[in-house]
């Protein structure tokens, strides 16, 4: 039996005396698409930073593909797209191709030149996200949704086994959000990529994820959409307060759909 992609065991973290995460335990299987939802200040981004080893937990342990995150030999197995990726100003001097190529620098090292096969990988990653026609376009001239896809290509170019996205739809219009979720669904289903998506937009992710983790400093729910549907009112009240309402969810022939 293969090691899970991510395993957290009793993970806690605090900024000085402010507790942000308390006793978080969960397992993400290889090839799974996990959505993490919660209100602002619930600890979602902190959890991502812990998995990326940008922060160290005060308690508990974190493993990625069976290795302690502290001693993970090959960090290129994790691709990451931050919530502020699509914030380039007009006139930023890098092209899409150059930004995507920067995703290989960690593997190549500081003093290695890009080879022909490296540029081929860059072009393949750009094609994967549907930006081939914009490969030589200045990043600052792209829409927010196009910029976000370029940063997904940057994360993909090093062939990660796990892709983490932190609030990827912030500042992105509705049509681009739909295209982004279609892309992530393709990566999940066709490439068998393990995905971890952090968002506050519960309505959008229900149709694409395999499981959900509902976080508000503690893990309030962790399970499938079927399981969530049975307790949605209670869970949403704990997350967002009373009066948030309920979600009517139907599942037909394996398809997750809001009604």
What features would you describe in this structure?
- Pfam families: ABC_tran.
- Keywords: ATP-binding, Nucleotide-binding, Transport.
- Residues 6-241 form the ABC transporter domain.
- Belongs to the ABC transporter superfamily.
- The chain is an alpha/beta fold and 259 residues long.
- It has a single domain (28-56, 67-223), classed as P-loop containing nucleotide triphosphate hydrolases (Rossmann fold, 3-Layer(aba) Sandwich).
- 31% of the residues lie in helices and 27% in strands.
- The chain contains nine helices and twelve strands.
- The strands form three sheets. The chain has a six-stranded mixed β-sheet, sandwiched between helices. Strands 2-1-4-5 form a four-stranded antiparallel β-sheet, covered by helices on one side.
- Strand 4 and strand 5 (67-68) form a beta hairpin.
- Helix 5 packs parallel to helix 6.
Q: Mind sketching the topology for me?
A:
Layout (H helix, E strand, L loop, with lengths): L5 E10 L2 E11 L4 E5 L6 H8 L7 E6 L2 E2 L9 E4 L14 H6 L3 H4 L7 H13 L15 H13 L5 E5 L7 H18 L2 E6 L2 H4 L5 E6 L1 E7 H6 L1 H9 L8 E4 L2 E4 L1
Parallel strand pairs: 3-8, 3-9, 6-7, 7-8
Antiparallel strand pairs: 1-2, 1-4, 4-5, 9-10, 11-12
Helix pairs in contact: 4-5, 5-6
- Order of H and E elements: EEEHEEEHHHHEHEHEEHHEE
Please give the CATH architecture.
3-Layer(aba) Sandwich
Give the averaged pLDDT, no decimals.
85
User: What's the main sheet like?
Assistant: 6 strands, mixed
CATH class: Alpha Beta
The percentage of residues in β strands lies in: 25-35%
Shape by Cα distribution: globular
Walk across the major sheet and give the strand order: 6-7-8-3-9-10
Number of strands: 12
The name of the CATH superfamily reads: P-loop containing nucleotide triphosphate hydrolases
Helix % is: 25-40%
Number of helices: 9
Oligomer: single chain
CATH topology: Rossmann fold
Number of domains: 1
Structural class: alpha/beta
Family: Belongs to the ABC transporter superfamily.
GO molecular function, one term: ATP hydrolysis activity
Protein name: Zinc transport system ATP-binding protein
Keywords: ATP-binding, Nucleotide-binding, Transport
